């Protein structure tokens, strides 16, 4: 009898685990690579550093919260789900050569246990629920990480991390859960790395009042613990549980494996702030249509598949790859550059 009871308990745990693992996980292709940042530097062209942006094509220099309705203004999205007109962006990784020139590191699709995602540049987005969660409201925005940080010790490895991928096959999964094991805050500087995976995990607790805050962080908080688990218990100051947003990027560094072109000193790989992994950051501006995200969380929609219960429709890669916009701060960002795009317009080497 005890044996059967134990077996029944094990089956129940497995069933609960399967439910807990339901999450949205989908690809977003590059909308544009541009020196603009409507969250931190609204209205400014040629902001201090370069970003790669994905999502709805209404992305603009200035997007006033609530008034600027991304869902209604966007005619397409570079993300898998038609209903997601949000914008997501991160800094760009560069390789610095021995001769002092720079080249933007390209991104590729991401595989793993849940299956391969296809994107043209860009990144992968996760929405991970933990129990009952409250979806973001129109006008909501937030920032994870600090673009000016230079100290790896000031960053929680459980929230922002990098992993050295020793294979060019993104489906040949390396390591355990994101931001665990040998993952590092710093960018791996090793020719053994064929790809470098970057993970950015956002806070999951909200004060329930403010859609934004002056630092784009104070209205949200991390729950207890860290990692890609949907977030732990929330503090009393931020009692509303949100879906856990996570970005994953696969930087393809195979073109830079020749050690002879690496700089004699200092890092070869850095972000567009001319800084390392401690300065990695991600920006988020909510733009899902209606209550589609809330329904997706409530109905247990999973991965990047159609979810009729929530009205979610997944586009084919050719559809979301085709959604692009022109740079609003025009400058060359591909090929070898004389300097990293900071300050003046970039110039080809």
Automatic annotation (TrEMBL):
Domain of life: Eukaryota
InterPro entries referenced in this protein's UniProt entry, alphabetically: DUF1996
UniProt-listed Pfam families: DUF1996
Residues annotated as domain DUF1996: 37-288
UniProt keyword Signal, yes or no: yes
Keywords: Signal
Keyword Signal found: yes
Signal sequence, renumbered to the chain: 1-20
Name of the protein in question: DUF1996 domain-containing protein
């Amino acid at each position: 009898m005890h044996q059967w009871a134990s077996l029944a308990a094990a089956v129940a745990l497995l069933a609960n685990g399967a439910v807990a693992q339901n999450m949205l996980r989908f690809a977003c292709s590059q909308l544009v690579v541009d020196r603009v940042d409507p969250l931190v530097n609204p209205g400014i062209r040629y902001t201090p550093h370069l970003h790669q942006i994905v999502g709805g094509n209404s992305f603009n220099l200035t997007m006033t919260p609530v008034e600027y309705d991304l869902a209604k203004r966007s005619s397409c999205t570079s993300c898998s789900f038609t209903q997601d007109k949000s914008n997501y962006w991160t800094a760009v990784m560069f390789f610095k050569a021995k001769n002092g020139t720079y080249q933007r590191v390209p991104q590729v699709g991401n595989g793993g246990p849940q299956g391969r995602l296809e994107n043209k540049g860009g990144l992968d987005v996760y929405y991970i629920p933990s129990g009952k969660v409250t979806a973001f409201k129109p006008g909501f925005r937030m920032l994870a990480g600090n673009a000016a940080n230079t100290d790896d010790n000031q960053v929680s490895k459980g929230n922002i991390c990098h992993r050295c991928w020793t294979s060019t096959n993104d489906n040949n999964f390396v390591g355990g859960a994101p931001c665990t094991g040998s993952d590092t805050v710093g960018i791996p500087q090793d020719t053994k790395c064929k790809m470098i995976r970057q993970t950015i995990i956002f806070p999951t607790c909200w004060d329930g009042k403010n859609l934004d805050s002056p630092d784009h962080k104070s209205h949200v908080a991390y729950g207890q613990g860290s990692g890609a688990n949907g977030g732990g218990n929330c503090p009393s100051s931020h009692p509303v549980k949100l879906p856990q947003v996570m970005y994953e990027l696969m930087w393809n560094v195979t073109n830079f494996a020749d050690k002879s072109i690496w700089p004699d000193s200092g890092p070869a790989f850095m972000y567009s702030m001319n800084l390392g992994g401690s300065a990695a950051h991600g920006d988020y501006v909510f733009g899902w249509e209606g209550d589609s995200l809330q329904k997706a969380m409530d109905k247990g929609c999973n991965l990047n598949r159609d979810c009729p219960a929530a009205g979610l429709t997944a586009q084919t890669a050719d559809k979301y790859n085709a959604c692009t916009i022109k740079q609003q701060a025009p400058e060359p960002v591909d090929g070898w550059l004389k300097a990293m795009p900071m300050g003046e317009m970039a110039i080809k080497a």
